[in-house]
Design a protein that fits this description.
Layout (H helix, E strand, L loop, with lengths): L5 H45 L6 E6 L2 E4 L2 E6 L6 E6 L8 E11 L6 E5 L12 E14 L2 E3 L4 E3 L4 E9 L2 E10 L2 E9 L2 E4 L2
Parallel strand pairs: 3-13, 6-7
Antiparallel strand pairs: 1-2, 1-12, 3-4, 4-5, 5-7, 6-10, 7-8, 7-9, 10-11, 11-12
């Protein structure tokens, strides 16, 4: 049996027992912290993938022509008086002057997840939860004092068939539409908020 000084025993105890334990503990602690950081980084990356940025705005097309319509409006007219959707390339004001591109769709309800089909509201089969009753499209029409000069641009009227699909997430709407007129077919989309215009 070999006896040594207390100082030697202390160094042996520290070098052989305490230091390895401390080293292993710090190593495990560092690994745990690193794993936590990587976990949250991975979660954030997954969150970024699952919530892509929403593109706001819209457009409509006919033949080889496309118009950008980034302003969306929801017009209300009172109880049981129906509503209108309007998508325009200009902010609609009482003082607006100039050429305007716009889509107007008349219906009675706007239910998320629904696809509406065109049907005249004079029809006995008309269903407010399934049908819309009118639509018009203006392309580069002269607008002045809230009036449109029908001779100034391309005008689609007298709709014969069409569909409109709406989904809503919070305050944002996603709307797609296909409108068939005697003079052509118009397709379009709009994504974003709708500014409420109360016409009562």
């Amino acid at each position: 049996m070999v006896c040594g000084s207390p100082e030697l025993s202390h160094h042996i105890t520290y070098d052989l027992i305490i230091q390895p334990i401390t080293y292993n503990f710090m190593k495990k602690l560092t690994f745990a912290v690193l794993a936590t950081v990587l976990f949250f980084a991975a979660c954030k990356k997954d969150d970024d993938k699952s919530t892509p940025a929403v593109t706001t705005g819209g457009s409509f097309s006919f033949n080889d022509t496309t118009a950008v319509v980034n302003n969306g409006y929801l017009y209300t007219y009172g109880v049981n008086e129906g509503i209108s959707l309007a998508f325009t390339d200009s902010v609609l004001t009482d003082t607006l002057k100039g050429k305007v591109c716009a889509v107007n769709i008349d219906l009675d309800t706007l239910i998320s997840g629904k696809t509406y089909t065109y049907l005249s509201d004079d029809s006995l089969a008309y269903d407010k939860t399934k049908n819309f009753d009118d639509a018009t499209v203006f392309y580069k029409y002269q607008w002045e004092d809230t009036d449109l000069d029908e001779a100034s641009g391309r005008f689609f009227d007298g709709i014969t068939s069409g569909t409109l699909t709406c989904t809503k997430n919070g305050d944002n709407y996603s709307i797609t539409y296909t409108l068939i007129f005697p003079t052509g077919k118009v397709t379009g989309t709009y994504n974003g908020k709708l500014e409420l215009r109360n016409q009562q």
